[in-house]
């Protein structure tokens, strides 16, 4: 590998630093106001660079946001690896992973804050969508799960958790197919979701 | 209940029709281009009304979108009710619900098309976010599930489906808490997700 001349190395070094300063600023602003509301003007100001110079590092505002999400995801996965890496038993690994995942995304600065913002004003749209689209559906699911518990067919679980889990799980299984990131068929999805979920729910 | 004079009733009737025409136009445009890309100018043109008159029916573009999502959700829930309503056994109800849900959202005009659009160009950002944030994580989950199948601890399931299901399920359980739409604690979420998922996954 060729070594770069000293001067070039220093320039490269501060380029990386500046890029990171921009990403950090974008993350902090998005965590406070939400993803959509973070403007390049504000990001530049917080990073201490000229607004135009953001475009020396990122082709578009979207590029910057994707880079930011990618860094966030890598950091999560590194910590997850530390958490579950030494465990040998796959079921125990998943057991630890579930705790780690829920705790990580309940902390300050979690990805929901980055996407929707901490301040109440900026998360209004998503809250309204959840209210009209998700709440009535999870209520129905909760009703069915509660019914099953009374019938003695479903183990005594928190119906709110169990209902949210089913709805979110189905939606991501669908979303992944929609973006061509999986090769299972709808029938496979149905069969395997039923197998995991219904077996998991069934009373002992 | 007082009846309205005839003239007023007719006006009210066409008001409802116009409002519905606007919602239908918004839905069609969002399904083709995606939610964010649907402009009021286009919606007005497709609905055959003046752009300004949209604001006689909806305070903001967001109001229109929320109304559209609400109608879409109601229609889904009516059909779901028809599908599972007569079933008495709660587990069988959920079994039917899972098929119905997956099939409904795999059809033409499903909510993913409404949110992200049918045309490849407009869903690029979400696809990139999924690629940097979700794909590496589900790959790890798939690896663990595959390991467990080889260890004989996990039943023979499609690891892609099982991994997507876990990730989506955890995220919605968290999202609902983030928007104050549930009263379970993070510890409750961990406990009940583990109980459903790990029990559902465990080899017989």
UniProtKB/TrEMBL annotation, chains A, B:
<dbReference type="InterPro" id="IPR036271">
    <property type="entry name" value="Tet_transcr_reg_TetR-rel_C_sf"/>
</dbReference>
<keyword id="KW-0238">DNA-binding</keyword>
<dbReference type="Pfam" id="PF08359">
    <property type="entry name" value="TetR_C_4"/>
</dbReference>
<dbReference type="InterPro" id="IPR013570">
    <property type="entry name" value="Tscrpt_reg_YsiA_C"/>
</dbReference>
<feature type="domain" description="HTH tetR-type">
    <location>
        <begin position="16"/>
        <end position="76"/>
    </location>
</feature>
<feature type="DNA-binding region" description="H-T-H motif">
    <location>
        <begin position="39"/>
        <end position="58"/>
    </location>
</feature>
<dbReference type="InterPro" id="IPR001647">
    <property type="entry name" value="HTH_TetR"/>
</dbReference>
<dbReference type="Pfam" id="PF00440">
    <property type="entry name" value="TetR_N"/>
</dbReference>
<dbReference type="InterPro" id="IPR023772">
    <property type="entry name" value="DNA-bd_HTH_TetR-type_CS"/>
</dbReference>
<protein>
    <submittedName>
        <fullName>TetR/AcrR family transcriptional regulator</fullName>
    </submittedName>
</protein>
<dbReference type="GO" id="GO:0000976">
    <property type="term" value="F:transcription cis-regulatory region binding"/>
</dbReference>
<dbReference type="InterPro" id="IPR009057">
    <property type="entry name" value="Homeodomain-like_sf"/>
</dbReference>
<dbReference type="InterPro" id="IPR050109">
    <property type="entry name" value="HTH-type_TetR-like_transc_reg"/>
</dbReference>
<dbReference type="GO" id="GO:0003700">
    <property type="term" value="F:DNA-binding transcription factor activity"/>
</dbReference>
